[in-house]
Amino acid sequence: MRILLIGAGGVGDAAARIAVERDFFEALVVADYDLARARATVAAATARRPGEARLVAAQVDAGDEAAVTALAVEHRATHVFNAVDPRFVMPVFRGALAAGAGYLDMAMSLSRRHPDEPYAKPYVKLGDEQLAMSGEWERANQLALLGVGVEPGLSDVFARYAVDHLFSEVDELATRDGANLTVHDADGNETFAPGFSMWTIIEECLNPPVVWEKDRADAAGADVEAGFYTLPPFSEPEVFDFPEGIGPVECVHVEHEEVLLMPRWLDAKRVTFKYGLGEDLITILKTLHTLGLDGTDPVTVKGVEVSPRDVVAAVLPDPASIGPRMKGKTCAGVLVTGKGRDGTRVARTSTTWRTTRRRCASTALSASCGRRRSTRSSLSSSSPTGAGRQRGCSARRRSTPCRSSTCWQRRSRRAMARPGAWKTAEGADPPQE
Hints:
7-stranded parallel β-sheet; Rossmann fold; globular; disordered C terminus; 10-stranded mixed β-sheet; 2 domains; alpha/beta; Dihydrodipicolinate Reductase, domain 2; 12 helices
């Protein structure tokens, strides 16, 4: 296996540092628009393993499909691992296909809001552009794994396992993400510094969040697409009690891929995703929107065209640099409610949490995945008629911007673990099957 890793930010850097400790690959090319940053990642990763010589650095413009293809061909890449923000998903996705390489990412192609009713109806949904290309990947006999991280990905594995093994009827698949992370400056004062791309935080938190309900789909003749609807940002706040000392965190609806994936292949009455953003970040996001600083269309400033959102992202610290200044924990998981296999009402949760020391203390369950189709996910079953998508490689794009920051790059040390990670709502281990 020869891997082209595109993106040496917080996520790509963590992925390289984790991958270097494994022996499954022959070569890992770390590519970034900033060659110096790619070289720094290679240096940091190789330092973790004496004698390591499989990693090299390269420069690439992730927005240039032809450049991605050329670099993949030059290094004879068998797989392209996309670790850049979702603006670049499609050119990297298409570039990998043109190079004849397999593909993995940790976020799906961007959505576009409905022109007339953005807070009621979806328009172009997350992942629509990629899923529409499934036939092309099939004809090329190549596999694209979409969203191979913690969430979406590991969260989808949790949901798949619950539906297949623990429940006879599911009322809701509720993905929840919360944290008590803080970032401190050189003087020890708490400061605002997101742990992943601020561009992405603005994108997913200010877009209309999507919810799926089976009743809506059934009313339209069992049309899954009819079950999707949108809400205003930060809708339906709820307090969720996260484990491992994080405690109660107010969570709100946020646009996220799980809601677009789980209903397509899992039987549930409702599917939701909520983040514990925190009052501070919600206030910042609302202010940016009010001032128009969340916009992506260029504006002219003293004769130079700049995107307001790019400026906001540029003035904040590089997410790859803030890990040593982080304190706290972050947690992601799925709360599944419905009827157990014995017919009784039950709620079960499965969570994965991370400290800022990159230590996994409670992770997930393995689940058989594998659909005979070119674009796959963690929802896939082992049968030919299964389906889905996953994020389970090594590090993911997103985490909860709870309070002042996130710690995404710390979150994917391990993708699967012990069945004991599952707990009932009362905290008891589930019955053995």
